[in-house]
């Protein structure tokens, strides 16, 4: 009897705290609104339109890299010439993007590859997917077919959604279905650190390049973005104002904001100094999910891929759609601007990687 009463009192206490949290969040939103005396669109009204500064009219598919099955992920090499891509059935390919030729085939035993990553030195690549393992391969070994990985990290997760090298070839971040992000070191079998804070699977990770890669953002199906400090292992900021599940997150070029791509087809820009969303990129005609996004080198243009097969360009400051391309025949799974900003890459379920310029 006493135990039942104690449990009931604890449940009531938790419910009361949750209600208090909701009220506090509402009051914070009201305080923010008091200082929101303008919008980003209004503040940028006198700035020249993108069409006068950086014409997009001539942008089109310049190269098409053809897989045999769906392509889920790719990454640019830091040398800006090579691309690493993968998807269904686990076969990944390193391409010479200049002449659309396969250079190295890497065979994994994954049923599907969800993420591909190039190391800063360009001598290593990593991939992960429908497996509990993240595999690292040496692509500087002088052969054009690789089957055995140089290193593998084993996670306590049904599958891994994302992997990315952190500043060097020595460390890598992984994220997956177990709601955790893990930091691994090439010399250790176990994670250096685990970042715990999401309540559902983590779908996207983005490094802040301005801070020596010591800060990163993550997003997931729990409709929130977490900002993490790698050095402390702690979540230093949490943004949970989203109404839909999130597919991707990307830092703005200055590191002062993050953009998210959501399943409701919207892209939102959250500014850290304003402590709130400052722009929504959406159109009533976009009915399917936004799958991925990336910023131009200048930060003025946002490129996004959608499940309706389209690649779209948005004016970051004015929130206007600048252009839309329909070259892909199936949903776009990833969008990435090249390291030097001169090209945009996309991959799709139509079995192709396209390079736009």
From TrEMBL:
Alphabetical list of InterPro entries matching this protein: G-protein_beta_1-5, WD40/YVTN_repeat-like_dom_sf, WD40_G-protein_beta-like, WD40_repeat_CS, WD40_repeat_dom_sf, WD40_rpt
Residue ranges of coiled coil: none
Similarity-based family: Belongs to the WD repeat G protein beta family.
WD repeat residue intervals: 64-96, 195-238, 239-280, 292-324, 325-357
SUPFAM superfamilies per UniProt: WD40 repeat-like (SSF50978)
Signal sequence segment: none
Name of the molecule in the record: Uncharacterized protein
Keyword Manganese applies: no
Cell membrane listed as a keyword: no
PROSITE patterns named among the record's database cross-references: WD_REPEATS_1, WD_REPEATS_2, WD_REPEATS_REGION
Organism annotation: Amphimedon queenslandica (Sponge)
Family annotation (CDD domains): WD40
One Pfam match: WD40_Gbeta
UniProt entry keywords in alphabetical sequence: Repeat, Transducer, WD repeat
GO biological process, one term: signal transduction
């Amino acid at each position: 009897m006493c135990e039942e009463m104690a449990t009931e009192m604890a449940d009531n206490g938790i419910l009361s705290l949750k209600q208090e949290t909701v009220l506090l969040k509402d009051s914070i939103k009201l305080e923010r609104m008091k200082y929101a005396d303008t919008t980003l669109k209004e503040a940028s009204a006198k700035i020249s339109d993108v069409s006068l500064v950086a014409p997009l009219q001539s942008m089109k598919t310049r190269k098409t890299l053809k897989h045999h099955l769906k392509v889920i992920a790719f990454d640019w090499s830091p040398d800006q010439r090579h691309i690493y891509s993968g998807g269904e059935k686990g076969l990944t390919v390193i391409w010479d993007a200049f002449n659309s030729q396969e250079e190295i085939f890497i065979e994994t035993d994954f049923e599907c590859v969800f993420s591909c990553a190039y190391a800063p030195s360009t001598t290593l690549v990593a991939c992960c997917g429908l497996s509990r393992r993240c595999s690292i391969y040496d692509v500087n070994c002088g052969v054009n077919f690789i089957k055995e990985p140089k290193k593998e990290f084993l996670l306590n997760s049904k599958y891994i959604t994302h992997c990315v090298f952190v500043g060097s070839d020595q460390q890598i971040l992984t994220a997956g279905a177990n709601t955790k992000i893990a930091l691994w070191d090439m010399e250790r079998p176990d994670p250096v650190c685990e970042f715990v804070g999401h309540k559902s699977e983590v779908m996207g990770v983005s490094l802040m390049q301005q801070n020596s890669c010591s800060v990163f953002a993550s997003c997931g199906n729990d409709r929130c973005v977490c900002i993490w400090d790698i050095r402390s292992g702690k979540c230093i900021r949490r943004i949970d104002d989203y109404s839909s599940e999130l597919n991707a997150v990307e830092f703005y070029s200055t590191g002062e904001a993050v953009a998210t791509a959501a399943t409701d087809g919207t892209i939102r820009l959250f500014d850290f100094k304003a402590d709130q969303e400052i722009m929504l990129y959406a159109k009533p005609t976009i009915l399917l999910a936004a799958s991925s996004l990336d910023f131009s080198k200048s930060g003025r243009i946002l490129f996004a891929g959608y499940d309706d097969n389209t690649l779209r360009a948005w004016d970051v400051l004015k929130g206007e759609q600048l252009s839309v391309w329909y070259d892909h025949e199936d949903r776009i799974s990833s969008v990435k601007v090249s390291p030097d900003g001169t090209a945009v890459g996309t991959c799709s379920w139509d079995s192709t990687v396209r390079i736009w310029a």
